[in-house]
Amino acid sequence: MNQPSDWELDNPERLYVITRGRSGSLVQALDLVTLIVSRSAPHPGMQPEQAAILRICRSPLSVAEVSAYLRLPVSVVTVLLADLLAEDQVEARAPVPAALLPDPALLQAVLHGLQKL
Amino acid sequence: MDFRSSERVAGPSSEDVLPPSTVAAVKVVIVGGFGVGKTTLVGSVSEIRPLTTEETMTQAAVGVDDIAGVERKTATTVAMDFGRISLDQQLVLYLFGTPGQRRFWFLWSGLFEGALGAVVLIDTRRFEVSFDVIGQLEERNVPFVVALNSFPDSPTYPLEELRSALDLPDNVPIVECDARRRDSSRDVLITLTRYLHSLAVTSEAS
Fold it and tell me: Which of A57, B43, B121, B188 has a CA-to-CA distance to B28 between 20 and 30 Å?
């Protein structure tokens, strides 16, 4: 691989979106493992990538999986999702918040799940 | 004729969909040098075939003559493989096999934020590459375990010698692993989870 002396690293800022939670609006970052669930079907005239997101997220799917299946960078997917979230066409289920980690009960659940493998 | 109908439809197969009851996800990152077996480990335990997410990175082309004198940029794509394990009807675990070169980690914003922990996968034929990786995890306060992936010509070191060479505290688990095997890879994740649990219980008590 070429190793030029001058690399410019893209370090994208985290995109924060406003989503409607049970306790009102909350600002959350779209994480790689935020689960996306469609609220509506794609409509004609919709941007193809957004229509594709609505189709593949009928069941919960992580941002990372959306990126993989649509072959789009996560940075692009998060922008598309921000629009869909703003229009309430998808729902975002945030990953377990970092403040709760590490929660012993959560870790027990992880352990039980792994032991079943 | 509709040409678009000949395109393969993107998306998970029916076996790969998550139940609608899934509400939360956790992530574990697998780190280590090139060719150490990260994707192999992910593939061994993942319920889906490993998927790939790509990010682009721009590179200023230095020393390239351009008539207009404009700095040219080229984009490089960096890939990261990942897999998934459904833990129960509500909770799913994602495993990310991070790119070998750690400067590429930061193309995915927040990759380490909120991660449960990490597995440092080591090839004992060249374990020096791990120093940098371990240093990065420690800097970011990401708890980790060390797994030694065995290759046919891997030298075996006494674990305590490795522990001292890697400058690891006594409580950090170092385990052997065959990343090709599902049970061995699962056991590494179990070791990590138990270790994280011990850290959580200790911090609750203090």
Answer: A57
